[in-house]
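Changelog-adjacent note: as of this version, every example in the card shows the full chain rather than a window. The one below runs 165 residues end to end.
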Amino acid sequence: MSKSPAYNNMVQRWFLLPVVGCLLFLFSCRQNDLFEKSAVIPKYEWRSDFPVTGHFIITDTSSAYSIYLVLRHTDAYKYNNIWLRIGLQAPGDTLFSQRVDIKLGDDARGWEGSGMNDIWELRKLLNGEPKRFRQAGKYYFSISQIMRDDPLPHIMSAGLRIEKR
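Full-length structure tokens:
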């Protein structure tokens, strides 16, 4: 006695359903190895008393992470660099901050990063080599502009990106 084609089709579907379900479950349970948060600068005029702040959670202290500054500016920005105060606070610790001079471009080659029309986005590696966080938990960050111009025009957004290596 032979089985009908409809029956064979139904058996194939019932067999594939658990396989597809298992694959979806495995890929949906992967840990997100990336954090990125940026804040829009009001009126594209970054005041020195407007820090970009946020937090991220580290659970894996055995892995190394790369830390990037993410900055978006317009083509009308008049400097080739930007001075920032970047702070990082580990769980249960005080805020450690440092002044950083970030090169955005030069007169010969133009802006660094990727551009579309008159908007430029730059991702600049802040730690030379990937860094391990010593303890798990919630880390806070703060980014402030410390240029002489206050407010600093033509800066659209600023933020931080953490990538697990």
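Structural remarks: Residues 39 and 157 are 5 Å apart (CA to CA).
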